[in-house]
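Need a sequence for this fold. Nothing fancy.
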């Protein structure tokens, strides 16, 4: 995050720091002196700079356990043909908001050609597998559908996952990315989650399936289907930088879900919708079972 990005973040959220849960480390005197930094369109240039500076000071006065401004995290996010774009993009947005963090988008091949997701969105990798650091703070694997099935058959890719996971602080996935972790032997004896239609496959890898948005088991962190990646990302940001940092990024992203339909889980969806969607996924489920 450069100075301009930080200033935007400070202006946006600095005024809220004294009031956010987790900012109790600020005394009343500090909070009153910090004052609200209002990003009003009527502020002069000097007033806007002063508000930004005051917001910066408010953040820096928060206990580091609640808010760690700077870090040097190394985060590798694996790409492969047919991955689910939102599995990757949701967490990447949140990780990229951590000042000082370095994100590596890892190619599935030895070149940096764009990798096309299952939805047709092409992402350009930043590094090849050989360029990926061996010691990582976060190693992340997205899910997919047929793309995940093909990735499970790619021995070189699975070996890469196993190798990088062995030296990573956190080994993580969203959606069916957990199946790739399982294929790499990383789920044995672990609690984990995946897309709800694929949960029954996790015991095949020696895992204990948990129907939950985000599941932690030691250094293994798995997220449920697609949109769970945002909750997943916020929890990891909080673990690395503190609760206030995560809340600030959540507010900056205006992540305040209010779906038009209460149908986001098999327990809530209409039986007609749930059962037919499950049947649509049935052939893929059986193909993945064979790939295990």
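Here you go.
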């Amino acid at each position: 995050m450069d100075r301009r990005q930080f200033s935007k973040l400070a202006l946006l959220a600095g005024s809220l720091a004294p009031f956010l849960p987790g900012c109790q480390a600020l005394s009343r005197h500090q909070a009153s002196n910090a004052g609200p930094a209002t990003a009003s369109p009527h502020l002069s240039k000097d007033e806007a700079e002063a508000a930004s500076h005051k917001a910066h000071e408010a953040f820096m006065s928060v206990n580091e356990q609640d808010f760690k401004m700077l870090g040097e995290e190394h985060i590798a996010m694996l790409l492969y043909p047919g991955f689910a774009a939102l599995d990757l993009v949701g967490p990447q947005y949140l990780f990229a908001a951590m000042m000082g963090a370095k994100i590596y988008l890892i190619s599935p091949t030895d070149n940096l050609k764009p990798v096309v997701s299952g939805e047709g969105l092409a992402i350009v990798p930043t590094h090849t597998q050989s360029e990926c650091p061996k010691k990582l703070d976060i190693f992340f694997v997205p899910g997919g559908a047929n793309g995940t099935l093909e990735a499970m058959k790619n021995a070189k890719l699975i070996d890469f996952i196993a190798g990088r996971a062995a030296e990573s602080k956190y080994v993580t996935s969203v959606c069916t990315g957990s199946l790739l972790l399982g294929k790499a032997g990383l789920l044995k004896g672990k609690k984990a989650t995946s897309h709800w239609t694929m949960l029954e496959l996790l015991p095949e890898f020696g895992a204990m399936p948990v129907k939950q948005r985000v599941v932690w088991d030691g250094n293994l962190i798995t997220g449920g289907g697609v949109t769970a990646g945002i909750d997943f990302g916020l929890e990891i940001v909080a673990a690395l930088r503190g609760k206030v940092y995560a809340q600030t990024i959540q507010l900056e992203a205006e992540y305040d879900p209010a779906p038009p339909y209460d149908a986001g889980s098999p327990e809530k969806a209409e039986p007609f919708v749930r059962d037919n969607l499950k049947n649509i996924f049935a052939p893929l489920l059986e193909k993945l079972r064979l790939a295990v």
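For context: The longest helix spans residues 271-291.
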